Amino acid sequence: MSSQQHYQRVAQAIEYIQQNFQHQPTLEDVAAHVHLSPAYFQRLFSEWAGTSPKKFLQYISVEHAKSILTTTPSHSLLDATYDIGLSSSSRLHDLFIQIEGMTPAEYKQGGAGLKISYSFAETLFGRVLVASTQKGVCALAFVEQNEQALKELKAKFPHAEYIEQTDEMQQRAVALLTAQPNSIQHVKLHLKGSAFQLKVWESLLKIPAGQLASYRDVAAKIDQPKAARAVGSAVAHNPVAFLIPCHRVIQASGVLGNYHWGATRKMAMIGWESAQIHAHSEEF
User: Fold this and answer.
1) pLDDT tens digit string along 162-206?
2) Do 82 and 211 reside in the same domain of the chain?
3) How far apart are CA 6 and CA 34, in angstroms?
4) First to last CA, the chain
5) Which residue in 104, 83, 168 sits closest to 132, CA to CA?
6) Same-domain check for residues 262 and 124
7) Cα–Cα distance between 67 and 16 in angstroms, integer?
8) Model confidence pLDDT, tens digit, residues 230-281
9) Containing domain of residue 19, as a range?
């Protein structure tokens, strides 16, 4: 079984741990909840996360999140070089993502004149729909039902022409969510968004993997310190999950908060990235 296929069980475990953290559930408790033996669950979880369930829980705790927010000044955090993606040897590499906004005509006319290719794929965090134009990836969303996900995509670009096929840009994007070696290749995004949204999304690219920022931090970085609420709205409307790391933006209190594709998935992403960063730092 691949690490991608582990996610459903892992997600059930994370959700159970979060809901019962006050009772400090044991490894045996969590394993029983997901209907696995303790030994098999420990091995499955560690294969997916790269760390133990106990250590992983520390990475998604409010205390850990608050320590990151308070020890890393927002200006230096968002000015930092960002790292994401893993090679086969688990070493992190820079990823360069370029955002291009759609033209006013493409934006306002529902994608008229656009040819959109789409495909479905399994990733470390569940099944995704990824779509692209000739200029780059225009959507990446986690899906429960293929037909519903495709319906939602078409609602965003009702006048576009659609074809189910995979292209190189889609493959590069999906590689980032499967920890493949070619994840270091450039990924170009072609996004429908307002000028403000594009500005927020570009700032999110500068949050390093394993780090977190508050909505207030992001608002300050784009020189609109009073716009934290508007930043939150822009973050929520991110059309490309994980590629633009909106999961790294949390509440100033340290609470991880909601996520368009589910709070459990957000916790899984934050914990998984922290585990990879710590594993990487321990190699040296």
Assistant:
1) 999 999 999 999 988 886 544 556 889 999 999 999 999 999 998
2) yes
3) 11
4) 30
5) 168
6) yes
7) 24
8) 999 999 999 999 999 999 999 999 999 989 999 999 999 999 999 988 775 5
9) 4-59
Pick the residue with more confidence: 280 or 143? 143
Query: Is there a single domain that holds both residue 9 and residue 43?
Result: yes
Write the CATH number for 261.
1.10.10.10
Number of domains in the chain: 2
Q: Judge whether residue 43 has pLDDT over 90.
A: yes
Residue 67 within a domain: no
In single-letter form, the type of residue at position 70 comes to T
User: Which residues are within 8 A (CB) of 235 and not within 5 positions of it... i.e. 6 or more apart?
Assistant: 200, 204, 215, 218, 246, 249
- Whether the per-residue pLDDT at 161 is higher than 70: the answer is yes
CATH number of the domain where residue 16 is located: 1.10.10.60
Asked if residue 204 and residue 256 are part of one domain, the reply reads yes
Catalytic position from the list 86, 246, 269, 270 = 246
For tokens 């969590």, the residue is 30
> Is 246 among the residues known to form the active site?
yes
**Residue 283 pLDDT > 50, yes or no?**
no
Q: What is the pTM of this model?
A: 0.86
Asked if 193 and 171 count as a contact pair (C-beta separation under 8 A), the reply is no
Highest-confidence segment of 96-100, 108-112, 137-141, 255-259: 137-141
